[in-house]
């Protein structure tokens, strides 16, 4: 690992172009979801983005993942301005991101066996290298080898989440990004997944960006926390000081209800 930023957003304003169907006309309209976002994630750092539902968390991740070009501003991944790169180069840079999408029940293709799901990001390796990498990662995420022959439907929510995490880290990315990794799981499973994420952070020495609406989860997963409110960053800093001494009105409300 070198020093520096894995991810850097500069003055990003982003959202969607929505189509409005009128009686006589169709109009395209910009819906701004994120405003003036500045964000840095350093090598090996654990950052949590806290925000209520609809605040723009998933939209922010889409921007970072190269899936949603901002209206304004720039997005750097390992120092490269991703939206100015040619497609092939962009794909290469974005391989440095491992991504765990929001809902473990929807995120896995039900007709593909776990073994195939995990080998897919490893197409550059030989078959025997793939096999040993898959075994190592299964051990790390604490899944038995017999899941390789199973379909996602045969797995519990917690096991699916472990499969998704395994898939995200199997090709050894520089940063792991998780969108509400615990919100679909029951409480006992939530603690296990949080512990697993921290164990992965320690062992693989990667940066971890987690999005959550849960302050408890944030407390366990953040070196630094960023509070997103209606598409703007309203507060950021050390998670314990934010909880002890929130400066912003909305953060205070969030902390008092926690
Ligand atoms: N594909 C889309 N087209 C138009 N608006 C969208 C789209 N996806 C999300 N939005 C809107 O963007 C806002 C933020 O959504 P999202 O980023 O999913 O929030 P969060 O993940 O924090 O719950 C919401 O108002 C939502 O309705
Ligand atoms: Mg979301």
TrEMBL record:
Database matches in PANTHER family: TRANSPORT ATP-BINDING PROTEIN (PTHR43776)
Protein's recorded name: Sigma 54 interacting domain protein
Classification lineage: Archaea, Thermoproteota, Thermoprotei, Desulfurococcales, Desulfurococcaceae
An example Gene Ontology biological process: transmembrane transport
PROSITE patterns (alphabetical): ABC_TRANSPORTER_1, ABC_TRANSPORTER_2, SIGMA54_INTERACT_1
Organism: Desulfurococcus amylolyticus DSM 16532
InterPro entries: AAA+_ATPase, ABC_transp_ATP-bind, ABC_transporter-like_ATP-bd, ABC_transporter-like_CS, P-loop_NTPase, Sigma_54_int_dom_ATP-bd_1
CDD domains: ABC_NikE_OppD_transporters
One Pfam family matching this protein: ABC_tran
One Gene Ontology MF term: ATP binding
Domain annotation ABC transporter: ranges: 7-255
Keywords (A to Z) from UniProt: ATP-binding, Nucleotide-binding, Transport
